[in-house]
TrEMBL record:
Name this protein carries in UniProt: ABC transporter permease
Family from the record: Belongs to the leucine-binding protein family.
Gene Ontology biological-process entries: amino acid transport
InterPro entries: BCAA_transport, Leu-bd, Peripla_BP_I
Annotated Pfam families: Peripla_BP_6
Keywords: Amino-acid transport, Signal, Transport
Segments forming domain Leucine-binding protein: 27-369
Family annotation (Gene3D superfamilies): 3.40.50.2300
Organism in which the protein naturally occurs: Pelagibacterium lacus
Leader sequence segment: 1-23
Amino acid sequence: MKLTRPLSLAVLWLAGAAGAAFAQQDPITIAHVYGKTGALEAYATQSHNGLMLGFEYYTGGSMEVAGRPLEVIEKDTQLQPDIGRALLAEAYGDDDVDLAVGGVSSGVALAMLPVAEEYGKIFIVEPAVADSITGENFNRYIFRTGRNSSQDAIANAVALGKEGVKIATLAQDYAFGRDGVAAFRDALEGTGAELVFEEYAPQDTTDFTAHAQRIFDALATEEGRKVIFVIWAGGGDPLGKIRDMEPERLGIEMATGGNILPALVAYRDFPGMEGATYYYYESPENPINDWLVEQHMERFGTPPDFFTAGGFAAAGAIVAALEATGGDTDTETLIAAMEGMSWDTPKGAMTFRPEDHQALQDMYHFRIEVQEGVEWGVPALVEVIPADQMDVPIRN
């Protein structure tokens, strides 16, 4: 396990002492509190599979750290904020878990953040995206391995932000969509591109006719290259529904960020479409990703997906932190080890920024290709966007 940030002498002393004290003692318990059922069930399944594969990889198959076995309990938020809040309190209070991971939906994750502060225990947010999680709603017990809206936005601004481009956005009308558009607007500044119109739709929208028409009307009088950038999670297929309205007759292109493999099937209808993604299994080149791809193909018959890599990274962060503390799960000791900590993931190195505990990480500029024998549109790599070249705002 690679841990690149030097630890203080105090933390190193604690690690040595804790290693002796906790060896062969009680298990380390971790709650995965996530939306196993509901509209984002596919995301949740990937996240949990990745988490468990990650624990296997980072512990060398032993499922132990510093002689203490890892135990994972699962709780289903059903994508309901009140249920997520209650279950996280149950995990910390009744189950006495050492730390928790979760938050598939940004709305649910935001409801859970105060619970971590109330109980004084770490909550690793994966994969919820809204900037406000590590922004205005942040507290010191929150660490996020998933990317945030600003990282998505900056990466997509690299792909789309060219001189004279006029962009309209379509996004879901809740934290994920609104934070995403706000971050994208900021990221476009100085690129020469301009965000000229914003349209928001309810999460369960399936008829995009009125939304698309308002966007068409807004772009109709614009000069230059015109693009609709879609920020969407879950069902509804806004790309396909808008494509059926033939935006090309008005000189309008479609663009969006990355997505899970089933959603990429619709991208086959958009060869040449550009954007940026958090993860596609062929984009990173490193031994950890090679292991993940090989094992996932062997066990599940498919490549690892978007949120499989995210769950895997969360496991890596937990193991790295516990190795640094010698298995000590005291919250303050863990926070001291995790702030500024770097660890290796299927995407390469990630680093928890000390100021807001957001994991800084590479992103990937893609261009969609239609490849024979592949049922989805392939987000072929154009360039890696390195973490150290993205000026991700600190919003808290």
